Amino acid sequence: MKPTLFILAAGMGSRYGGLKQLDGLGPSGETIMDYSVYDALRAGFGKIVFVIRHDFEQEFREKIISRYEGHVPVEVVFQELDRLPEGFRPCEGRTKPWGTGHAVLMGKDAIREPFGVINADDYYGTDSFKVLADSLRALEGKSGEYCMVGFNIGNTLSENGGVSRGLCFVNEQGYLTGVRECHGIERKEGRIVQTAEDGSEIPFPEDASVSMNMWGFTPDYFGYSEKAFVDFLSAHGDEMKSEFYIPTVVNDLINSGTVTLKVDPTHSRWFGVTFAADRDATVAQFKTLVEEGVYPTPLF
């Protein structure tokens, strides 16, 4: 059975200033998601599942999903504030989504096979999808064994400001022992640094492996995540801006010895539109990739 690609496209894009998931950045108006889907199909994925919000469903179907008809089966699931376990409800006035961990849970009824998880607004590169697809095929019929694609920190930076990355701690056998979210990472005067809350700059390891939210799971992950989400809501559900993240679940499962997670490195170079100022550079990069023959235009 071919693995499924689960694309997280429900975010609000607050820093970018709009629905960047729908922004046409390729020479023929392709979105970053289009390139991810194209790379996934070449790597051997067999189905695409999008998680979006109801309020832009029609536009999403018209602009995005219509492109894939005849190419790959597509399903859509929805992340909404009130999609919570029984006995819980959002606190009054909350508008912030519940985070990536909650978004993945929305795919429970649509996915029955090993699946990859990616962000809609990140370009991951062709090699990373090959790496992820190969790892997921090896997980078919298994449980408690997950994977992720590890990027070199130097291949994931923006020229327009500090970024957040998940610093991966990996043992000698290549398995993840933990992920720590780090903010304000950028290259300054030839060095990679992290800006601390007090404004000081801390050197960041040049050879660090980081998570770009490119995960590989088997369906048993949903059960573990559901339980973790209930625990999260019990502790933080009444907070206006609390978020439930994938690494929160992963860290707990690894630390308890419940699962293992292999970190598979890629030489792919990330780019995306974290900031509005990233747009022009991203458009130029896609244009170059098309000129070099990496992609056709239009893609579909």
The pLDDT mean sits at 92
Beta strands, count: 13
Gyration radius, in Å: 19 Å
Largest sheet at a glance?
11 strands, mixed
Name the overall outline: globular
SS element count, helices: 7
Q: What are the segments in which pLDDT stays under 50 over at least 5 consecutive residues?
A: 12-17
Structural class: alpha/beta
Which series of helices and strands comes N to C?
A: EHEHEHEEHEEEEEEHHEEH
Portion in beta strands? 25-35%
Fraction of residues in H or I helices: 25-40%
What does this structure look like?
It is a single chain. With 300 residues, the protein is α/β, with parallel strands linked by helices. It contains seven helices and 13 strands. The strands form two sheets. Strands 1, 2, 3, 4, 6, 7, 8, 9, 10, 11 and 12 form an eleven-stranded mixed β-sheet that branches. Strands 5-13 form a two-stranded antiparallel sheet. β1, α1 and β2 form a beta-alpha-beta unit. α1 packs across α4.
